[in-house]
Design a protein that fits this description.
Helix content: 10-25%
Oligomer: single chain
Number of domains: 2
Structural class: alpha+beta
Distance between the termini: 25 Å
Shape: elongated
Number of helices: 3
Length: 149
């Protein structure tokens, strides 16, 4: 897969001007110019930059950070569901990744950890949550309200 300079620079965590300098020096592996645009290949989801022979070491990213998905239980929804019938109950499990999703049940077939930080809650106010690293949210049966990572 090939990408343009703006996207490659954001993946590496450097400015697009600095990336163009590296491209002109021939230090980005497999990159080539097509008309006015640079086409840069991805290796393990990142462009590869070769080291310079002298000078300061590069500060670009060499590995992609794993995406963190947070799962927490909404206690306000639990309280409001107490006297409602099953059909009227709101989902109480909140999955916060690239977008917020609310479900009734959840299966996590991935490495995860339970975090309790009463002194440093999340922006939503949660003091206990589950962190799942490196897995995308996949809603497999929306009618049954079951979500998978």
């Amino acid at each position: 897969m090939y990408i343009h300079t703006t996207k490659a620079a954001s993946l590496l965590g450097i400015s697009s001007r600095r990336l163009r300098q590296l491209l002109q020096q021939g230090r980005v592996k497999g990159a080539y110019k097509s008309g006015k645009f640079w086409l840069i290949p991805l290796y393990n989801s990142l462009p590869q930059v070769t080291k310079a022979k002298r000078g300061q070491a590069g500060t670009w990213k060499t590995q992609r950070q794993p995406k963190k998905t947070i799962v927490h239980i909404n206690s306000n929804a639990i309280k409001s569901n107490a006297k409602k019938s099953f059909e009227l109950r709101k989902p109480v499990i909140a999955i916060k990744g690239t977008k917020n999703t609310y479900v009734h049940s959840l299966e996590i077939p991935a490495p995860c950890r339970v975090v309790y930080q009463p002194d440093k809650p999340l922006s939503c106010g949660a003091k206990v949550w589950i962190e799942v690293l490196g897995f995308d949210l996949e809603l497999i049966q929306p009618s049954a309200n079951i979500a998978h990572f």
